[in-house]
Design a protein that fits this description.
Largest sheet: none
Mean pLDDT: 86
Number of helices: 4
Structural class: mainly alpha
Low-confidence stretches: none
Number of strands: 0
Radius of gyration: 15 Å
Length: about 100
């Protein structure tokens, strides 16, 4: 988590830190507010996905096309979908470019 906090801070994100959570009980969640998103890690199994895709320009979503980028992509999705977070100019430009 500290590596990701440092990374997002270095690229201009203000007042946000990444934390590791071991329990989702009410007391833990209350102590960590505000929470902008949660990232759950699961072992990936390749399966055919027949679900239809939805085109929604209001939500940022990027398909992962390289290995070992899941945490970075998850953090970007949280940052880009949380209007209360000040993401800085560099990420704003990237977000606009990827729309």
């Amino acid at each position: 988590p500290g590596v990701f906090t440092e990374l997002i801070s270095e690229i201009g994100v203000k007042n946000v830190q990444v934390e590791e959570v071991y329990d989702l009980d009410r007391q833990t969640i209350e102590q960590m507010r505000p929470i902008y998103g949660l990232i759950f890690l699961f072992k990936w199994r390749q399966e055919k996905d027949d679900r239809p895709s939805v085109d929604n320009r209001e939500i940022f979503f990027a398909n992962q096309v390289i290995n070992n980028a899941c945490a970075t992509q998850a953090i970007l999705s949280i940052l880009f979908n949380s209007p209360d977070i000040e993401i800085g100019n560099e990420l704003k430009e990237f977000q606009e470019m990827t729309r």
